[in-house]
């Protein structure tokens, strides 16, 4: 093999190695959370009126078919409402209308359940959110109070489906 052939082989081998590494790299971008609910309107109202999200649109989707990719019962009617927080965080609320669609058995208080979720929000004016939640009849698990670190006010509540939210408002630094 000539020097040119040897150099060419080394170059091509290195190039294919880099190309192969780039092709196997993985990237992920978080887009939004989704909640599957029986009462879409109540959930939209909570996130709009208490949390300050805005609706971005509502669409009736095709009914669930055989081998539905979301695992919904055959014939389930699906209505999707998109929502966004003021800073652009996305939330999809999918209303499912079907007699076999049952809610999860979530704790009603501060307790946890395996597989449960909690949405964590940094907020402003936590006391106003607490007032709105209570006025709307939503379950406030723990009123706004200093967090264990003392650096924020923290409160816990549940949406109409029992999904727990942790809210915290960062306090000004003490001088």
Keywords for this entry:
glyoxalase-related enzyme like fold, alpha/beta, Signal recognition particle alu RNA binding heterodimer, srp9/1, 175 residues, 33% strand, 2 domains, four-stranded mixed sheet
Structure description:
Strand 3 (77-84) and strand 4 (90-97) form a beta hairpin. This protein has two domains: 30-103, 2-Layer Sandwich (glyoxalase-related enzyme like fold), CATH 3.30.1900; 115-175, Signal recognition particle alu RNA binding heterodimer, srp9/1, CATH 3.30.720. It is of the alpha/beta class and 175 residues long. The model has no long low-confidence stretch (mean pLDDT 86). The chain is built from three helices and eight strands. The protein is globular and about 75 Å long. A four-stranded mixed beta sheet has the order 1-4-3-2, with helices on one face.
Q: What is the global morphology?
A: globular
Distance between the termini: 74 Å
Radius of gyration: 24 Å
Count of helix runs:
3
Listing every helix as H and every strand as E from the N terminus to the C terminus, the arrangement reads HEHEEEEHEEE
Major pleated sheet: 4 strands, mixed
Percent helix range? 10-25%
Tell me the name of the CATH class of the largest domain: Alpha Beta
Portion in beta strands: 25-35%
Oligomer: single chain
In short:
This protein is of the alpha/beta class and 175 residues long.
Topology:
Layout (H helix, E strand, L loop, with lengths): L2 H22 L7 E6 L2 H10 L4 E8 L15 E8 L5 E8 L20 E5 L3 H10 L3 E8 L5 E7 L5 E7 L5
Parallel strand pairs: 1-4, 5-8
Antiparallel strand pairs: 2-3, 3-4, 6-7, 7-8
């Amino acid at each position: 093999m000539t020097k040119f052939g040897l150099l060419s082989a080394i170059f091509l081998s290195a190039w294919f190695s880099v190309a192969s590494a780039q092709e196997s790299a993985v990237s992920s971008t978080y887009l939004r959370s989704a909640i599957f609910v029986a009462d879409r309107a109540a959930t939209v109202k909570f996130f709009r009126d208490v949390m300050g999200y805005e609706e971005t649109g509502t669409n009736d989707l095709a009914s669930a078919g055989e081998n539905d990719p979301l695992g919904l019962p055959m014939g389930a009617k699906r209505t999707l409402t998109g929502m966004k927080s003021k800073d652009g965080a996305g939330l999809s609320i999918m209303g499912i209308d079907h007699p076999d669609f049952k809610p999860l058995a979530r704790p009603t208080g501060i307790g946890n359940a395996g597989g449960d979720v909690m949405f964590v929000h940094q907020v402003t004016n936590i006391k106003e959110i607490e007032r709105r939640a209570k006025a709307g009849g939503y379950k406030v698990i723990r009123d706004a109070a200093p967090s264990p670190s003392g650096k924020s006010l923290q409160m816990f509540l549940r949406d109409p489906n029992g999904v727990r939210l942790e809210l915290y408002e960062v306090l000004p630094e003490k001088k």
